[in-house]
Amino acid sequence: MKNNKLIAAFLNTSNTNNYHSDFNALMIAIEKIEGTSVNGYTWTTTEDKTPVEFQFTVEISGAQCMVCRDVSPQYYGTEIDFLKLYDCRNKSKIDAMYLAVVSFIKWYNRQTKLKCFNNPNHLN
Question: pTM for the full model?
Fold first, then answer.
């Protein structure tokens, strides 16, 4: 599957496991997401772009899986489900987890390609 190759590239491995059907393999990707932190910018006022660090957590509950973006300094808070993944039509927990991982990797790759991180002209 194409998205299994995407996940393998994110993990820097040539092993394209069955991420879509293997909880253990998928958890490796989730752990990497949770270990990811990037520098970026956020608005604090209409004219001010403030440097911040984004860290990510993955919340799994029932057939839902959401990626949250935590902003440091901590007083900027947490954006719950910043990729807008909550969907009551998910068929299973692993499907929701797979969708969340693939969505995060695509977002991350797009941000990296556009050089959005560490660039005050691009708000993350």
Answer: 0.82
Give per-residue burial for 88-97: e unless 16+ CB within 10 Å, then b. eebeeebbbb
Cβ count within 10 A of residue 39: 13
Task: Round to whole Å and give the CA distance between 53 and 106.
Answer: 19
pLDDT in tens, the chain (124 residues): 789 999 999 999 988 889 999 999 999 999 999 999 888 776 555 566 777 888 888 988 888 888 888 877 665 677 777 777 777 777 899 999 999 999 999 988 887 776 666 555 555 5
Token readout for 85 is: 């993944």
Task: Answer positive or negative: Cα dihedral of 25, 28, 30, 36.
Answer: negative
Distances (CA, A) of 103 to 22, 29, 33, 68, 74: 18, 12, 11, 12, 25
